[in-house]
Design goal:
This protein is of the alpha/beta class. It has eleven helices and nine strands. The strands form two sheets. It has a six-stranded parallel β-sheet with strand order 3-2-1-7-8-9, with helices on both faces. Helix 1 packs across helix 11. The chain binds 2'-O-acetyl adenosine-5-diphosphoribose. 2'-O-acetyl adenosine-5-diphosphoribose binds next to helix 2 and helix 11. 2'-O-acetyl adenosine-5-diphosphoribose (OAD) binds next to helix 2 and helix 11.
């Protein structure tokens, strides 16, 4: 059942100098990209320990490269949805706006969001594990299913530029995300189960620093109880209405 957002949330967003948004796989669900933990999600079909860590990659690079190549292809075939678009519009309404995403699908960037912090990397990039050089988008695709994708420079193995289990988040991205959370007047957590840290800790960082924190999700996340407000429903349906209400409030002071 969908629930409405409050006048407080609209007012806070309309008055905010600084807004930070954290997104997870749920915001891309309406584009047709599977989430990780929902029924039918990626981690129910594939085991993270077999695919999303460096040991698995080194043990079976063809398998891991192939899985990421498949996910890259799925993401390329899908389009940003109304939720992504609404966040593009929100960025134009707020002086300081930071979109922190755990998603690697590149859909926020394709929608047109500008200030995007990629906490978990981006599946469209890959780099060489030997020389560190970045490769083209198509490079993860080997010539055949049996052959590993290699660096054009040194023939080292290419890996997707995503954060795997047991790896650190990119330090610059984490620092930018924490700073945005600390400075935010409003912090929105959208379409994330909020079980993977440090991303899941960001709303709390924002709340401690004085932000109004709200969640938009089809089901309460692991941290819903700590939110000032929980809006239940699809981000692609709620966000356009929310942003339009904020826009009208800013223009003529009316809801
Ligand atoms: P999850 O699959 O854990 O959670 C998806 C969330 O989206 C759930 O809370 C759903 O209820 C919600 N959801 C689904 N459809 C929605 C919709 N239309 N509108 C709003 N909410 C919706 O995905 P993440 O929280 O993103 O990390 O997972 C976090 C990290 O775990 C990922 O970045 C990935 C994974 O392991 C790495 O790969 C490093």
């Amino acid at each position: 059942m969908a629930s409405a957002f409050s006048h407080t949330l609209v007012d806070r967003l309309a008055q905010a100098e600084s807004v930070a948004v954290l997104t997870g796989a749920g915001i891309s669900a309406e584009s047709g990209i599977p989430t990780f933990r929902d029924p039918g999600g990626l981690w129910q079909k594939f085991r993270p320990e077999e695919l999303a860590n460096v040991e698995a990659f080194l043990a079976n690079p063809v398998l891991v490269q192939g899985w990421y190549q498949h996910r890259q292809q799925v993401a390329l075939e899908k389009a940003p949805n109304a939720g992504h678009d609404a966040l593009v519009a929100m960025e134009t309404l707020v002086a300081h706006f930071t979109l922190i995403t755990q998603n690697v699908d590149n859909l926020h960037q394709r929608a047109g969001s500008q200030n995007v912090v990629e906490l978990h990397g981006n599946i469209m990039r890959s780099y060489c594990v030997e020389c560190g050089r970045f490769a083209s988008e198509a490079a993860l695709r080997p010539a055949s299913q049996e052959i590993t994708a290699q660096c054009a420079n040194c023939a080292g193995l290419l890996r997707p530029d995503v954060v795997w289990f047991g790896e650190w988040l990119p330090p610059d991205a984490l620092e930018a995300a924490e700073k945005a959370a600390q400075q935010a007047d409003v912090f929105l957590s959208i379409g994330t189960s909020a079980v993977v840290y440090p991303a899941a800790g960001l709303p709390q960082v924002a709340k401690k620093a004085g932000a109004y924190v709200a969640e938009i999700n089809i089901a309460p996340s692991a941290i819903a109880a700590s939110m000032h407000e929980v809006v239940q429903g699809k981000s692609g349906e709620i966000l356009p209405i929310l942003i339009e209400a904020v826009r009208r409030k800013k223009i003529n002071g009316a809801l």
